[in-house]
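INTERNAL AUDIT FORM
Audit reference: QA-55
Scope: verify that the stored structure record matches its stored sequence.
Auditor: D.O.
Record contents follow.
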Amino acid sequence: MVFCFSLNISQDYGRFFERLRSNIPHRLLYIDIEIRYVSSLVPETTLETFNQSVSARCDVFLSEENARNIIRSLVADSGATQEFVDAVLVPDILSYARYADSLPMNLGRQVIRLRVELLVELDHEDAIGELVDESSANSVNFKPASKSSIKALKRVKYLDNEYEEYLPLKKRRKLGEDLSSRKRCTVCLDEFSDGDKVTSTPCNHVYHYSCIVEWLKTSHLCPLCRYQMPID
């Protein structure tokens, strides 16, 4: 498949996640990516669009290995090859993230939000048809979870290994297999401490209650597995 591309990375100065300022112990990097596929024959026409977002602690993301793993996960369903991700997306996004993190204007900013826009122009119509068919099967519209599904989340106090006692047997078994989701919150990336108010989603992943509530107000997808919560 022959293609050409243009990549634009910028900082978004919106107030997203400002409500979480008092609940986030670390500075966060929040990345929005949009990949737009167009035909070389009719570049004004968008054939397929991929949108995804991810958050990570700044100090965790700002290393090549961590950035590579996070970005690979971010674009896993986009159709981008691993070679392209490693050769283009990882170095360019990481370089800009380091630059943004070093800016004096961002020193007191709790959340740095980056906008990544990738335009891919494909050469062959047959390849485009295959790409659209595959990516359409994986595409999901990002919408807030329903208020009732958020309200249904139950808060409990985290007490290390005793947390599982609050859960049904099926969820306890699942959590035993997924220690990473039990030990830290994937939204703020901080480890749980005794007494923290936590909750588990229907897909059995555990988060700080306040963190996942704010997340679900923006996206109905589980941050870990993309389980789809009900929407209005």
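Auditor finding: record pair retrieved intact. Confidence is low (pLDDT under 50) at residues 16-22, 124-141, 163-181.
Action required: none
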